[in-house]
Write a sequence for this structure.
């Protein structure tokens, strides 16, 4: 039986790298049926809305969504579509794995870190945003709930067990942010005690930044609140060679959206220059989520091989290929 997934090609380089990814999924024998939906600038042009109801329905209907990057028009009062999607579907867990690939010019070789970022609370709760009438003072509310902290920390430990990972590092700033980060840390300690088989560690966020740069191999699973997770996961992407190799999954209890961490790259759109790897890695996360571990492994092996061999990769990876040559090379390996 064929599983239906929702596909949002998105804006800019989105349609090209999504198309490349679907070709790879098909070649690997995933046998998906695709239900296409629009969001972002392309949806605005077609329907007058950035996030049409039909798209929300399609995401809700199917077990997983693969999404290209979306352009949110700047300065026209639009809220970020990605933030809207996270809120609408309560996608509370943002999983951002980074892994070293041979054949890139990254600084480190043995990195395999996954940042699990709480995706709905913290400094991004959207609560209490005030700017004084004279524009001289601004405030926003950071919100941590026991329920929100518990479910994300538990998610991290369950993932560690499932993936055979050894250690979970809870990242906080409880020494200064005593109420919010304090509650997060308290809950993290309680949950850690339930998982004696996994090594638990806690670390203050600024120290984590330093250690990630000096000795990133010591990290395995990082679990943290929204703002810290946003920043640390980009730092981690930089350790392995940047945006072209960084996928992200947004997971809730009912829905899941898989994507690249990067944006729609309007500067290279339509030029056959985009590196499709981040979206392909997002699709691999999707396969793992859907229980298709064998397909995930085969595609990852093919991508790893092509990047290691070097010549047909895209320019950001040091190669001379375009999106289509790179994709074709992966398809040939499969
Ligand atoms: P960007 O990530 O689109 O581009 C930053 C730089 O990285 C550019 O030089 C671009 O050419 C390069 N780049 C990005 N992806 C690449 C790839 N796959 N292969 C090769 N080079 C790549 O960030 P920027 O320019 O700040 O944002 C452009 C648009 O994307 C904005 O409208 C922004 O709102 C949107 N955006 C959407 C995201 C999403 O839907 N998840 C995430 C981030 C930004
Ligand atoms: Mg970010």
């Amino acid at each position: 039986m064929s599983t239906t997934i929702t596909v949002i090609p998105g804006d800019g380089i989105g349609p090209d790298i999504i198309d490349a990814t679907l070709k790879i999924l098909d070649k690997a024998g995933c046998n998906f049926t695709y239900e296409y939906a629009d969001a972002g600038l392309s949806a605005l042009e077609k329907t007058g809305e950035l996030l049409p109801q039909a798209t929300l329905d399609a995401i809700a209907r199917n077990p997983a969504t693969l999404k290209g990057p979306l352009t949110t028009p700047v300065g026209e009062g639009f809220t970020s579509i990605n933030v809207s999607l996270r809120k609408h579907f309560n996608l509370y867990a943002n999983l951002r794995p980074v892994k070293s690939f041979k054949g890139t010019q990254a600084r480190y070789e043995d990195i395999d870190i996954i940042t699990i970022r709480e995706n709905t609370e913290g400094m991004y709760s959207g609560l209490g945003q005030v700017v004084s009438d004279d524009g001289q003072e601004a405030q926003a509310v950071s919100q941590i709930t026991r329920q929100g902290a518990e479910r994300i920390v538990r998610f991290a430990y369950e993932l560690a067990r499932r993936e055979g990972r050894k250690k979970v590092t809870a990242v906080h700033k409880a020494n200064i942010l005593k109420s919010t980060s304090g509650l997060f840390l308290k809950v993290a300690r309680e949950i850690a005690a339930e998982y004696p088989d996994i090594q638990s560690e806690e670390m203050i966020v600024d120290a984590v930044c330093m250690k990630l740069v000096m000795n990133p191999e010591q990290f395995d699973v990082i679990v943290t609140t929204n703002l810290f997770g946003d920043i640390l996961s980009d730092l981690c992407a930089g350790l392995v060679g940047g945006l072209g190799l960084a996928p992200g999954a947004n997971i809730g209890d009912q829905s899941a959206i898989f994507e690249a961490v990067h944006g729609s790259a309007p500067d290279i759109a339509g030029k056959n220059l985009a590196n499709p790897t981040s979206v392909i890695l997002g699709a691999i996360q999707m396969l793992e989520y859907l229980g298709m571990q064998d397909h995930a492994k085969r595609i990852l092996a093919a991508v790893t091989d092509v990047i290691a061999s070097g010549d047909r990769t895209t320019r950001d990876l040091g190669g001379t290929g375009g999106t289509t040559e790179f994709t074709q090379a992966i398809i040939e390996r499969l």
About this structure: The pocket of magnesium ion (ligand 2) is lined by residues 230, 234 (CB under 6 Å). The longest helix spans residues 146-162.
